[in-house]
Amino acid sequence: MGLFDLFKKKETDDGVPWSLRRKIKRAHSKFSPAEERQAALQSLAEDGSPPAVAALIRRFTFYVEPLTTDERERDYVYDRLLDFGKEKTVPPLIRSIRESDSIQWQLRLFHDLASEEEVLETLLEIIEGYDTEYEKNPQRKIQIIGALGEWKSERVAQVLLRFLEDVDEEVRYQTVQSLLSQDPEITRDRLMDLALADASNRIRDLVIDGFVEHAVSIKGYPQRKQFEDLLGDAFSIDKQGVIRRRPPKSR
What we know:
The chain is mainly α. It contains 14 helices and two strands.
């Protein structure tokens, strides 16, 4: 053994072996040959250590070309993470949901590994940590709000209502979409208030279209006349206060 080998570090400062660090770097290299990246992903799956599992999850956070290669790699990683099971995969998976900008695949995997109650409680806990002020990239917030729309409950509705005041239009738009699936007894007036006050025409149209789709009555709303003025000639209102779309005029 040479003098250099006596002093050579076998681990990085965070305790990850250099050999594993090199595999992680290759697995995350978007512009490397696909064969090299896929071989590195396979090595990480065979390793199965906590750093390797976390690195596999990070493969969900970037895309490669072509799309078929990207999908094949994601599917491989998804299946291996499922094989590792809940105990090994869920803790780093939740960290990724908290920290990554793109979390669609992580959310899907979370649903497959944990109970509905665990997923809901985790997403509510994460979203409650957000405010409604400006942030450079709100994609994580938008995706979590969208995922929460899958549950119909008073608690979910109450948590999401404050995001109708978010400074980002995309956040408000996604919030409206998620709230339209909730109980209108909780959400109706706030959605109508937003349609009257928001400068975004597409948010106004989303509220109106959602009310039509879900047959939401506007009876008893204090500013009903102002809201009716938004509808134009394309809609009518029946005796129950439900907005109906008029059939197109025949030529």
